[in-house]
Structures are given as C-alpha cells and as structure tokens.
Design brief:
Helix content is about 35%, strand content about 20%. The protein is of the alpha+beta class. The chain has a single domain (about 15-95), classed as Ribosomal Protein S5, domain 2. It has a 4-stranded mixed sheet, sandwiched between helices.
C-alpha cells in the first residue's frame, strides 16, 4: 500500500481567485473557442488557473462535474500551461472525459 503525504491535486496558490486578476485575464488574454468551453490564455511570470462554469450548464452537480473533469485535464497537462494565466470557461455539459481531453490538447498555445 502506498503511503505518500504528497497531494496529487492542484496547489492552492495557483488558483486565480480575485476578481481583478480574473478580469485582467479576460480582457488581455488570447481566446480559444471550443464547442464546450472557451480557453483564455495570458502569458505571465506565474502559472495560475481558474475554472468557471456557466449557470446555463445545468444544476450544481453537473457544473461541479465539469469543473472536476477540466481540473483533471489541467493537472495531467500542467507543463503545457507553465508561465501562463489560464481560465477554462465551460459553456456546455459534456460528460466524456477522453473527448474533452483530446479537444483541450488539440489547442496549440
């Protein structure tokens, strides 16, 4: 049994939380539109990320499911987003992890 104290999730310090930080990324970032999500990418000194889901997606269970899927996609491809501030704005419910992962990874930053 593996007993590791190292957490596998996202570190708290890389999450974008303040409205002015998020607004800065929205206004200055390059935007990549997908069918299910829009990705905002801003080159930066720090690596930061936010996951936002439109209320149109459905109930809270569906919105949280989408955030979990995108957090996992980000976590597994973290090196692609080094030195960038990134916002994943999720527009539609799409519960197929592998197809979402392919769509995100097809984007050439």
């Amino acid at each position: 049994m593996m007993n590791s104290n190292k957490k596998k999730g996202l570190p708290r310090e890389i999450i974008l939380k303040k409205n002015r930080e998020i607004d800065n990324v929205f206004s200055s970032a390059r935007r990549y539109n997908g069918h299910v999500f829009t990705l905002y990418v801003l080159p930066s000194q720090r690596t930061r990320v936010a996951f936002m889901v439109s209320k149109k997606v459905g109930n809270a269970v569906k919105r949280n499911r989408m955030k979990r899927l995108f957090r996992e996609i980000y976590r597994l491809n973290r090196e692609k987003y080094e030195s960038k501030e990134v916002i994943f704005y999720i527009k539609k419910f799409y519960d197929q992890y592998h197809k979402l992962s392919v769509q995100v990874n097809e984007i050439d930053l």
